[in-house]
Amino acid sequence: MAYMILQHGESRSFPPDDPFLAAAAVQADIVLHLGTPVAPDPGKVAVVVELGVECLADHAEDDNPVYTNVVGFSRFRNGVDSPSKLVELVRMRVTADNAVAAAKAMFETAGFTVVICTDQAGRILDRLLRPKYNAALRFLDEGLASAADMDTTCKLGLGYPDGPIERLVRGGLAHHCDVTSALFATYGTAAYAPPRMALAARRRGAR
Predict the structure, then answer these.
(1) Which helix (DSSP H) or strand (DSSP E) does residue 88 occupy?
(2) Which CATH number goes with the domain that contains 75?
(3) pLDDT digit string (tens) for 57-105?
(4) Alpha-helical regions (H) of the chain
(5) Residues 76 and 138 placed together within one structural domain of the fold
(6) 176 in the same domain as 139
(7) Closest Cα to residue 5, out of 29, 41, 31, 27?
(8) CATH code assigned at 135
(9) Is the pTM of this model over 0.70?
(10) What domain range includes position 147?
(11) pLDDT by residue (tens digit) across 133-160?
(12) Are 28 and 100 in a shared domain?
């Protein structure tokens, strides 16, 4: 399915060598905005907006009919790890079914697995995972178990491919701090409050 890309700056979802970028057309009925401001474009079937932790409503108005063809997306990525094949597709209350279907078909044709969710900061994965990562970091601080023991328990006991601490360290504790801080600011839930190790990593990076 043909799509065009409007890009300004680096994309978290698609690094410069990603084949998805190379496959874009010059003109198409679906347009992806990667780091670019979003403007209404009624001539397109779908206007697809790359998101970070924020809501799609930060870029378009929830109930304004000029945004009926606007869809948000986030390709899940663990910090500096390579992006995954999972795309979270975001619809607002005003988003038309045909826009969602077109965006979903575009990503699936390109080999991605797509899930659809409503417009909430952090969507599905970050809202599920970040409290678990925060709990693991707090357990480490409290001396409940070593990082190696927690990681081994999750891998052998739960069948995870990696443990929470090694995943966080590999992806970057500062990145985790940024994500969970944004969720905490949005929802005010204690489970999203960034733990000491993540805060310290962010402060070191800032220096």
Answers:
(1) strand 86-91
(2) 3.40.50.720
(3) 999 999 999 999 999 999 999 999 999 999 999 999 999 999 999 999 9
(4) 19-22, 97-109, 125-142, 147-158, 164-171, 173-187, 196-206
(5) no
(6) yes
(7) 31
(8) 1.10.1040.10
(9) yes
(10) 126-206
(11) 999 999 999 999 999 999 999 999 988 8
(12) yes
